[in-house]
Amino acid sequence: MSEIEIIKAFADIKDLRRRAGQRHNLPLCLALFTLAIAAGNKGFLAIGDWISSYREQLIDLFKPPKNRLPSYSTVRRTLLHINYQEYSVCLANFFDIKPVPGETVAMDGKVLKGSYQLENDNPYSDSHPAIMLVSAYLVERGLILEPCEVDAKSNEIKALPELIEKLALKGVVFAFDAINTQKKLVS
To answer: Within a 13 Å sphere around the CA of 67, how many CA atoms are in the beta-carbon half?
Structure first.
């Protein structure tokens, strides 16, 4: 397979799939998924239709072994076994998504609906509180940066300064809701 930038972008993601039955490498599946989503396809059937519609062009571009592209179900199964944190970092690096001076970064914390587990009698899963993420959104470009998970024993108020430090650039404007404007945080 030729070295294309989007393939190189996903080359370092660890492949957690079983070796038996693998026909397509992980970077190719992730590249096709990313391109199909960027083309406006929503859902795996639409991704499969997109791959079928552009089959010849994609084969010419990627030059996969045996001129075979993965089906939508192969792409779906591949996505079930990837580390999404690694994927989002690779994607952000590929698209070079970083705030630049003069941009506004809106920040907000949200609890993931249904992410908590209350049951104590399940031997396969420990009970845990809901997962909370602090997201950063580049207002001018309409892009979401990598979210930051809030520690289970903390809240968004304590996690926000860490994310601001991580993104801090001279000239970037940060915007957040009223909960994060407490006197102790403002200096």
So the answer is: 4
